[in-house]
Design goal:
Number of helices: 21
Helix content: 40-55%
Strand content: 15-25%
Number of strands: 21
Structural class: alpha+beta
Length: 653
Amino acid sequence: MSKGVINRHLRYLFICLPFTAILFVQEMGAGMVWLTNPWIQLAICLPVYITGMHFFGRSALKSIRKGKPNMNVLIAVGASAAFLYSLSGTWMGLGADYVFYETAAAIITFVFLGYYLEDVAVRSTQKALDGLVRSEKTMANMVAYDDEQQEMVFPVEGDQLRSGDLILIRSGERVPADAKILWGEASVDESILTGESLPLDKRSKDFLVGGSILVAGTVRAQVTADAGDSVLAGIVRMVREAQGEKAPVQRLADRISAVFVPVVLGLAVAAFGLNYFFLHALTPALMRAIAVLVIACPCAMGLATPAAIAVGLGRAARQGILFRRASGLEAFKGVRQVIFDKTGTLTTGEFAIVGWQVAPAGGHAPERDRMEAGGTGSGVGPTPVSPEEFRRIAFSLEKYSAHPIARGITRAWRVKNDQRWRKIEEIRGVGMRAETKEGDVYIAGSYKVAAGLTREEGHSVYIVRNGQLLGWIDVEDTLRAEAAAVLQWLRVKGFRTVLLSGDKEDRCARVASQLGVDEVFAQQTPEQKVAVVSRLSAEAPTAMVGDGINDAPALAAATIGISMSDAAQLALQTADVVLMGHGLRRLPAALELGRHTFTTIRQNLFWAFFYNIVAIPVAGLGLLTPAVAALAMGFSDVVLVLNSLRLFVRKVK
């Protein structure tokens, strides 16, 4: 609820409350004779009635013109019935028994009070998003240089920073914009974005996300995105758009409310007719009909879903779970199977050396002589190079490649005295080819480069020099640290798990065995992935978790698509949910939060309907005055909001 709407309701309440209080003083018999004059009561009530019709009346007329009468129709009709009945009694001089200006004023004033209390309660559901918004608005220490190249540091507002600007961030300060560290090291708290409580260590060339806080250290950094294009700004936009979208269950509640209003009008007419028939008195019959109109106002039904959705989305954002659409929260309610991509999802996408072998001089080494990672090497007979030289050559070749396997090798075998090449190039589909100044040719690549030199086809990288096999290296994608725990949680909760990957059968089977995945689909093209996901989603509601560009069509085909914050941009745009914090550990919380949110929506709708079913007959029997009915109607909204707010404190995995 925006600040402007809250101020409007409060402003209307302040206008109406003094006049209504005066009318109630007269009703309670305070001894002010002049207040008993109906014309004076009319003058006091008139500002309240005009204010009420300005708000409720205009809204009611607009909804009627559109053919979808809203809840304000009931308020406008109820207040107008009391006011016009009192006006006719005043005009015809029928006496005090026909004057109920305090009823008309009370209906309008108490409904404004209820709306204001509702606004206050709903505003508290926005606190997680408000925290993100406040993080966008921060001061920055901008670094610049004068004509003599002397460094100057001066404060600017964070939204004035542009990509390329230099900034200084000290210990305890909030990062004003997305930036890349140029100098310095720091411990950074990114909990506002990821929900992760432990600070992360950052150093030169690492990225800082705007809104995070430097717990310790000082860094100089270069801004990488304007304020409007930052990660945090994108998150805020995503959550706001999701909160503004109507979930399917909300659209159902809206349709019910649209039918409910005409039904209540009919019930009010019936209540008037029956009461007049049995009581033979116009005034009591009219008051009971007005009470039915006011107490049955379906505000609670209109509020039941958006209040829970707002809290659920806010809680999720605070925990590093971003829903692109409000429907995503509802979609989680029926999910009983989860499909995972392998590389970058269940695994880190970073390769580690698990074994390597220096070939003997003959060029062929039996499999039994294959070394485990970290070994010292043993061949059969003499070898063309020593183990140390083999590692040096492998590093010197792979350091020039951007391939994930090459990065894994260079990360493990970093050396200082690497080989200098006269020429080096990357041959697509083969590997790296380099020449020394002496004319020796080295190649690091797939089995294609070693075909005919060895019968060992199952290794990751082969190193060849001048047509002679020097050895091979085996690497494997490492499992995410949290993957086993997440899969175990899914098994305990009864979810069926599926591994869907384009990788080879043996690698997928190995990962599935380690994690206990129920079913495996390996060597799948993007088109085949879509077919599998579509078929499984048709059988039962299905969540798909992926991170690559080739996962985007499958994410869109699933009941609900989930990607991680370090996923490819296309996957992020296609997914319904984004898990912040570089990993799967927020998946259980997302599943649980979606389920709890829908449970809260159902509770709200039940109580909203139950309230109306009980309240209408009570009002029709004359057990509630219109004023009390208006007050009760307003507080029923607050009860539903408070029930929704329990999501903030409810334990979620």
